[in-house]
Each structure stands twice: as structure tokens, then as C-alpha cells.
Design brief:
homodimer, about 350 residues, 12 helices, 12 strands, about 15% strand, DNA-binding
Chain lengths: ~350, ~350
DNA sequence: TCTGCCTTTTGAATCGTTTCATAAATACGT
DNA sequence: ACGTATTTATGAAACGATTCAAAAGGCAGA
């Protein structure tokens, strides 16, 4: 028993299919009496519009696709929420997918979204955006880059100044007296990681006598942080960094867990620790985590705004919004009392 | 300039549309030479299949819809990940939406998914499922309930024994010497909350002299927990509970933040605290959080399995998987050393 | 009653893909 | 070389909603 179609509704109500469609889309073109007949038929048959058919006819879907780097990271969850809210106001809905920092997964989802003929796409790209995203442009899809600036001629973008954020974090460590800094993050090929590291390098370069070490990780989650932490605590005291800057709060959380398990070490006494993103849990970590705050929800909202703008007027020049990150100092870098 | 269609590809390659379709779907029915011609045309035109048209023809989409209670809760993020992985193995993809405990939002997304003619739907329902979800069944949609048992004749379901979980949590508080227990959770109309509370009531009933107080919250997030915590610390010592059981770890995190800010109170000395879900951050809270662990990813995987089963054989009886939750003891209820 | 104008209704055509019965081309055995 | 299998290729029909030109219906004024 296949679902009811407009044809079925029309037959039941004793009207033409066009009339049913009008009831659905332009009620004021239809007399009250007819509307009522049609509505009754719809309810009796449990009719539900077939979105595929609508889309086929319309040429485009009414949804917006969003490819996130990691849905399990509360930072991205916040970005997504901001986008969803903004889109809801504008009457579109957003569908999400998580690439988990995997270029192949990203490509799969982008393909999927393109096949669905989404209105537009918000992407925080994994690696080099050149290949796939450029192709999207060629196909006429509107793309807004999240957390990354691409070719300013091609895409609008919403990003945060990661170099500055890295600079803030490392400067803070140095200013609180740390001289052997370690940067923990997953691979230089990740733009965010590379930028934050670059900022840290800049800060360190301004202070002679301060060293910076790069500790790459496979992933950017709590577990990876825990592993780095375990490696750290096994080091001799002479080789131990006294300040650790993690590319995000998940890593920092993991590092913190490991370091605290080593009974001889204390945070921030022996190691100062700072993360990135300022997720909700940072303030309630065993030792409240200093971090770099980014306006997550606003990033999402802004991305939707730029997308809408570009859909409205495809000729308009691309806009590039860059937010400034902000240092949040808590106990893990030596503040006297936990600041919630 | 509209996107290229199979017709365009066929013209360019000098073959019939049916042949292009065969190249795409049944390559072994097409000679190597023809395949090559068609492939070249596809690349030259940048042809991308129109999913709406495919779906219209097929009658059903190839995706599975999933409506979560709260995408910002790491527990649900894990469930989603489990489902996504399992679906990927089976060759389908999953689209997510977050109802945020709002019945209207839930209804909107369910409608959206039904219009998209998804293969099936995984729903962790907000309130009474009777109305909307029953309608879906009437329309022939396969629905698997997450984290909730509905009418066993109508739906398969994957759930966790929340009553038992609540019982475990409250029993643990009582066994570690607490006598004035408070339960923090958002509204009895939320099934999960109600069940966990019921379990707690059962545990308390077994121990004369132990009291249980219900502290409802508006939401189930960190902020709501913080507010409850602030209200608690303003109480006179006599009215202060000595054991607090929160309906999830987000609430517990918030309560913890507030209590620790009140300099006179300590966890677990003055107040023991236990949460629910055992999210990644529980172990790295200021005071590591005791919690009730649920097999999140496995819940997601199992839901997909049940859905696939039911799609395969719609006549088969509905299956109901109930996982047992597990107590995880850490510092917030008095363990000697933080257990990570 | 007829005319002109406005509102309401009609139904064929369209979107892009897949399917399938049929036709064409090719291979094989004698 | 001929008929029979087998492999390839064809293109009209179908999916379900929307659109739009045209028809029908309603109403006021002459």
C-alpha cells in the first residue's frame, strides 16, 4: 500500500490535482468550500507531501547542508546550534554531517549534499579545500567556509583569528613565567592546528630563552590528550615542559587527566596548561582550564547570514568575517582561585 | 545554467539515456567502450545525479532519519556516532536533528523526515509518543524507539533500564552514609527523568530514615545545574542535602561548579554528587564525577540493527533490547583517589 | 438576456531518473 | 553461411508535485 499522492486526494475530494496543489501552496486562490473538502480528504487519507517530487520540480531543495569537523566536540555542537537557530528564523532547515577530520568522509558527505541539491553548503574543510570545494563552485553551489579562509574571490567565510589565539595562549604561559613550552595538536596539515602553532611560535620568538616543542597527535580528542599526557609524565624532570598549550580543550582535558594521575606532578605548579575553544566543561575540569574563547554560536549564525546574502544576490562580493578570540584565565595556568 | 542531466550526458556521449543510467547502476551490462564514452561525458559536463529524481522514482530515500533529544549532550553524540558507523557499514547514511526536548521541534523534524520518505526513523521521543509516532506507523514508516519503550506490539526499541540506573545511583549514595538525598532533573514529564527518579525512590524506600527531595529544573544542561547549585548553597545547613543525584552529567557538572564556589562547602565531604551517562568529561571534573554508565555507541549500533531487521522482514515480531546501566564510582561520592 | 470582468478550477506538461519490454548487434555452433 | 543464443543498447513510461494557459463559473451593469 503506497502512500497517498495529490492524485488520490484530488479523486477523493472530487477536484483536480491542480486544486489540491493550490490548497497546499496558495490557499487564497481557493474557495473556502473547496479547501474544506480537500483538507478532509487529506486527513482521511493521511496524505504527506512527497518532498522528492517537490524538489525535482523546484530544482532545488529547501535545506542547507553543513559539514562539521567533529560533531563530538562541544565547540562544533555550539556552532551547529547557532546555524540551526538562524536558519529556522529564515525558514530553512539545516542538515548536519560530521567529517571527523577525515577527508574521504568529508568528500562523501559533500557529494551526498550536492546530489540532494541543497540550497548551499557550510563547510569547515578538513584538508586542502582546493580540489572538491572548487568543483562545487564550478557547479554553481554556494559555499561558505567555516573556520577557514579560502580564496577570498571564491568564497565567503567566517573564521576566528587562530594565529592570534595561539599567540594569546603562548604569551600567557610565558608571562606567567613558563620557559619550556609544549604545543599539543594533531598534525600540521590541519589548518587550525597549524595556525595556533604559528601564533605560539610568534609569541615564543618574542621572548629569548623560551623554547617551544611540538607534540603531534593522531586525533583531537580526550583520548589522544591522555596519551600525550602519559608520555609526558614518563619524562625526566629536566625534559619536562613547564607550560603546555593544547590545540583544543578536549586534548587539554586528556592531558590533565594523565598528569594528575602521576602523583608527583601538580597543575599548575609543575605544568601550566591551557586549552582552546572554552567549551562548557573547561571551567569545571579537575583544575579549571584556562582557554581561548571563540564565539561559537555567533560563528554559526553569521555563516547562515552570509549564505543567505549570497543566495539573495549571487553577484555581491564575498564577505569575510573574522572574529577575535579571547583569553580566559583559570586555575590551570595559576590563577589563585577557580574562576567559573 | 542548470545542472547537467542524464539526457545531456546521453546526448554528449551519443547514447541513449537508459545506457547512461546503466553505466551508473549496472556497469557490467555495458560494454567497456561505451562506459568510457559515457564516463568522459560525465566528467566533461560535471554531471551530478539528482537525488530527488532518483528518490521519486524509487519511492523511498536511502537515508535514515534520527531525532535526538539533545545534540549538545555528549551522550547523544556518542549514540549518534554508533548509529552512523553501523549505517555506513550497511551502505545507508543517517541524517540527524535535535529536538532539544521540545515537542514542537520534534514534530517539525519528524514531519520533515516523513516528507523525505526516509527508510526509517530512530526517535528518542520527547513526551508522549502516542500521537505523532503512532501516526507514522499508520503511514507505514518503520520506527525504532531510542531510550524508551513504547507499545511493544508497535515498535522495536533500544533502551537502558533507567529505573535500575536510578536505583544504583541512589543506593550508592545511601550506602556511603548519606541520608538526605536530593534528585535534580528536569520535570517528571520527561520519561528518562521520571524513571531515574522512580529508581531513586525505590532505593530510598528500602532504607528507613533516608529522605528524598525532588528539585526540578527547566532544562538538562550545565547552566540549569549551576542554578540549582546556587539555590542549594544558599540553604541553611540543616536543610542542605548531603547527597545529590543528578539526572545527567551536564546537570551534575553545573551543580559541582556552584557548590565549589561556595567556599564553605566541599565535595564529597559536605555533599556527595553523582551524575548519569558517564560522559568523557565526568572523569576529569574538578572532583571526578561518579556516574551511571550507559553503552552509548552500542545503543546507536543496536538501533540501526533493529531497523535494518525490520526493513528486511516487516512481519517479524518487534524486538526490545534493554541494556543494563553500570555504576562508576569516583571522587565525588567519596572514593579515596580520583579514578580516571 | 447579453456582455465584460473577475474569481475559481482544470489538466496537460514538466522536472530527472530508473525500469523494462523490445530491438539491435554480436558471438557461437554446425 | 545460417540460425540460435547471448550480450548491448534503446527509448517510452512512470514516479508525484507544481505550474500555467485556458476554460468555466459567478456577478454586475446595461
Amino acid at each position: 500500500m503506497r502512500p497517498a499522492s495529490v492524485k488520490d486526494v484530488a479523486d477523493r475530494a472530487g477536484v483536480a490535482v491542480g486544486t489540491v496543489s493550490n490548497v497546499l501552496n496558495y490557499p487564497d486562490r481557493v474557495s473556502a468550500r473547496t479547501q474544506e473538502k480537500v483538507q478532509r480528504a487529506i486527513e482521511e487519507l493521511g496524505f504527506v507531501r512527497n518532498d522528492a517530487a517537490r524538489q525535482l520540480r523546484a530544482g532545488r531543495s529547501r535545506t542547507i547542508g553543513m559539514v562539521l569537523l567533529d560533531a563530538a566536540n562541544p565547540f562544533f555542537a555550539s556552532v551547529a546550534r547557532g546555524a540551526e537557530d538562524a536558519a529556522a528564523v529564515a525558514g530553512s532547515s539545516v542538515m548536519f554531517a560530521s567529517s571527523r577530520h577525515d577527508a574521504r568522509r568529508e568528500a562523501r558527505y559533500i557529494d551526498l549534499f550536492e546530489e540532494q541539491r541543497v540550497q548551499g553548503l557550510l563547510v569547515s574543510p578538513v584538508g586542502s579545500i582546493a580540489a572538491r570545494v572548487a568543483e562545487l563552485k564550478a557547479h554553481g553551489l554556494v559555499v561558505v567556509l567555516l573556520d577557514r579562509e579560502g580564496d577570498p574571490e571564491l568564497y565567503s567565510s567566517v573564521s576566528v583569528d587562530d594565529v592570534h589565539g595561539g599567540y594569546l595562549a603562548a604569551s600567557h604561559l610565558v608571562e606567567t613565567g613558563r620557559t619550556r613550552i609544549a604545543f599539543v595538536g594533531g598534525g600540521r596539515h590541519l589548518q587550525q592546528v597549524a595556525d595556533r602553532l604559528r601564533g605560539a611560535e610568534k609569541a615564543v620568538a618574542e621572548h629569548p630563552g623560551v623554547s617551544l616543542e611540538f607534540l603531534p597527535t593522531e586525533e583531537l580528542n580526550v583520548l589522544a590528550g591522555r596519551e600525550v599526557g602519559q608520555a609526558l609524565v614518563r619524562r625526566s624532570r629536566a625534559l619536562l615542559p613547564d607550560g603546555v598549550f593544547c590545540a583544543n580543550d578536549l586534548l587539554a582535558t586528556g592531558v590533565l587527566q594523565s598528569v594528575l594521575l602521576a602523583e608527583s606532578l601538580e597543575v599548575p605548579r609543575d605544568i601550566a596548561l591551557i586549552g582552546y575553544d572554552d567549551i562548557d566543561f573547561a571551567s569545571s575540569a579537575i583544575v579549571p582550564l584556562s582557554s581561548i574563547r571563540q564565539p561559537a554560536e555567533e560563528i554559526g549564525r553569521t555563516a547562515i547570514r552570509l549564505l543567505a546574502q549570497e543566495l539573495e544576490d549571487p553577484q555581491a562580493p564575498h564577505e569575510h568575517v573574522v572574529f577575535k578570540p579571547e583569553l580566559v584565565v583559570r586555575g590551570s595556568t595559576g590563577a589563585a582561585r577557580p574562576k567559573v
